[in-house]
């Protein structure tokens, strides 16, 4: 056999995603390039590793065994690389972070300078909803998570990052007189919700319940971006984190509707499992955030204060 490390990487990614197209996207390769590498690798075995049935890709039992061996081989290769960097006194390894979807507007700024200083490390950043973030944390699959609602069923430690402000948001075509409205405004506006499991949804519903707001639920959508686009299109209103609508506010496409007791204020947190044993890389990142968070906030999020 004469397979290459690149072929192992391609085959492993295809088996993980069960898709040549998705593997090509994650590996930053063309679909034909992945197909060729996969074929060249599979041709070295007399037993099929994958099969196509009804345009779907399936991994055979033998293919799963080879995928496991490929993962072990690649992990050993990574270990060799990491040990070489450690010998040189450099940080090495993979920094694994999972964040709730709205945190995508924040987390990159808490990573940028650290990644520039240590360009040899790998970053695995998963952007998903709150439920899946906490699941990854519970399974110890990640180093850190970024959330706006702290879990109540897990033992965690946390670092407060910055405030999370939520406002009632509407399309700028809708006319409001600029006065401060009371809760009765919710009787006449259709409200767009995030999906169950969303941190924004949790904070929003908790506030509605505590203040007995007479809300009219219009629809439920699965991402902050989908909610934003629906509000822009005039389909309704929503209670949204200001962090994700900066450009639309500055371009007068969206407006903040002044309502009593708003904004809703929560916090963004970096959290990790209690008593977690950090790798040198994870410990270095946590120290970086602690030392630089105020500067990061002042440099990148000062604009929030004007709203």
Question: What is the secondary structure topology, with strand pairs?
Answer:
Elements: H1 5-17, H2 20-27, H3 31-42, E1 50-53, E2 56-59, H4 61-87, E3 94-100, H5 112-117, E4 122-128, H6 130-138, E5 144-147, E6 156-171, E7 190-194, H7 199-210, E8 216-221, H8 224-232, E9 238-241, H9 246-250, E10 254-256, E11 264-273, H10 280-300
Parallel strand pairs: 3-4, 3-5, 7-8
Antiparallel strand pairs: 1-2, 5-11, 6-9, 6-10, 6-11
| Mean pLDDT over the full residue set | 90
Q: What is the general shape?
A: globular
How is the biggest beta sheet arranged? 7 strands, mixed
The CATH topology of the largest domain is what?
D-Maltodextrin-Binding Protein, domain 2
How many helices does DSSP assign?
Answer: 10
Radius of gyration: 24 Å
Any idea what the CATH superfamily of the largest domain is called? Answer: Periplasmic binding protein-like II
- Beta-strand content bin: 15-25%
- Roughly how many Å apart are the termini? 64 Å
- Per CATH, the class of the largest domain reads Alpha Beta
Helix content: 25-40%
Structural class: alpha/beta
Order of helices and strands: HHHEEHEHEHEEEHEHEHEEH
Structure summary, number of beta strands? 11
The domain count comes to: 3
Spans with pLDDT under 50 lasting ≥5 residues? none
CATH architecture annotation of the largest domain: 3-Layer(aba) Sandwich
């Amino acid at each position: 056999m004469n397979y290459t490390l690149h072929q192992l990487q391609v085959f492993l990614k295809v088996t993980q995603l069960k898709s040549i197209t998705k593997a090509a996207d994650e590996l930053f390769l063309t679909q034909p390039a992945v197909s060729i590498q996969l074929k060249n690798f599979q041709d070295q075995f007399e037993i099929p590793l994958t099969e196509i049935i009804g345009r779907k890709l399936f991994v055979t039992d033998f293919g799963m065994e080879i995928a496991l061996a490929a993962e072990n081989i690649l992990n050993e290769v990574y270990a060799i690389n990491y040990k070489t960097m450690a010998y040189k006194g450099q940080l090495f390894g993979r920094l694994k972070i999972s964040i709730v979807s709205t945190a995508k507007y924040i987390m990159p700024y808490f990573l940028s300078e650290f990644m520039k200083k240590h360009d040899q490390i790998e970053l695995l950043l998963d952007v998903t909803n709150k439920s899946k973030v906490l699941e990854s944390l519970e399974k110890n699959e990640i180093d850190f998570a970024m959330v706006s609602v702290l879990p109540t069923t897990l033992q965690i430690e946390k670092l407060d990052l910055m405030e999370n402000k939520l406002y009632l948001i509407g399309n700028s075509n809708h006319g409001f007189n600029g006065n401060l409205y009371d809760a009765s405004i919710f009787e006449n506006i259709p409200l767009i919700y995030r999906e169950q499991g969303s941190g924004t949804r949790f904070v929003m519903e908790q506030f509605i319940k505590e203040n007995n707001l007479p809300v009219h639920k219009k629809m439920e959508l699965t991402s902050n971006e989908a909610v934003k686009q629906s509000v822009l299109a005039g389909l309704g209103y929503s209670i949204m984190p200001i962090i994700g609508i900066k450009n639309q506010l500055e371009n007068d496409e969206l407006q903040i509707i002044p309502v009593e007791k708003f904004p809703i204020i929560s916090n963004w947190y970096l959290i990790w499992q209690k008593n977690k044993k950090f790798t040198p890389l994870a410990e270095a990142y946590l120290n970086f955030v602690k030392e630089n968070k105020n500067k990061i906030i002042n440099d990148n999020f000062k604009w929030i204060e004007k709203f």
